[in-house]
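re: that chain from earlier
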Amino acid sequence: MRPDISVVMPLYNKEKHVARAVESVLGQSYSNIELIVIDDGSTDKSAEVVERFKDNRIKLIRQENLGVSAARNTGIEWSQATIIAFLDADDAYKHNFIERIVALSNGHPEAVAYALRYEVVRPLYDSRHHFKSPIEHSKLIDLPEFMRIWKYGSQISASSMAVRKKIIIEAGGFPVGVKLGEDIDTWIRVLFIGPIAYDSRPGSIYFLDADNRATKCHTPPAEYEFFDTLDKWIIRKNITGEMAEEINEFKNFFRLSHAHYQIRLGRQTIGRKILFECKTSYFMIEKYRLLLLSYAPKQIYDALATQRQAFSRIRNLIYKKYLTLYD
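^ sequence. v structure.
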């Protein structure tokens, strides 16, 4: 029987975490699925961990190390279903992720892709959080709406998205060679084709305990690949006014993140330059907060960060205690 959903999992040196990811797929409440794991030239025992699972829904494909985009594109080629979901090997699905993706596809036949919000987990501090969303439950979002909701923080990750196979192929797949933001670039090109059905309730988990996450291994660029994708679209469609401003503020979210990264590493001069060049109205307070922070010694910044983490852990323990007492 042909699967209803194909899950594509790129894999590179995730020996410690891939079992958790695979188990989250095999344990889904919706079972008519296939899991395509693309081992992208791992040098550890990641592939061997996957081989230990004796489930005929799993396909393990090995290739030389070509990068995460090439691995996902290989998975797309091997997929049998009309809808393809993606899951990084150090993330996990909540037990009903696929069931909810199917519900979105049935409820929104005009959508070309489907997304759930994701939850961020810090195992060391036993804490969970997700970014605020201005959307309650589910709705169709187009490119302008995609830009607007991102002002509240990252809403969609590579592990919380599913796309119709014919649409991801039409969009050109994932950009090979791009190390950060390759997923966002892809979702933008998908949105050029049609709307995404978005459910603001978390459906996947982004774990911060992975050893070699892309965000840890690569410095965030000052200009992402999707900046260029959007600029070309603006020119082609002659976009002006409010929409052009929305796109600029969307870019500013990532510019401020880049400035924050530079300040955190002690590169205050670089961080300040980015902030001074950032023309924003929506993120004005955050811009000046970071500018002020850039004049503090790195040790003070690190101390403040430690205090925030400790507060988060204490808050979470109190919350758990409350649930225990009143459950």
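The CA atoms of residues 34 and 57 lie 5 Å apart.
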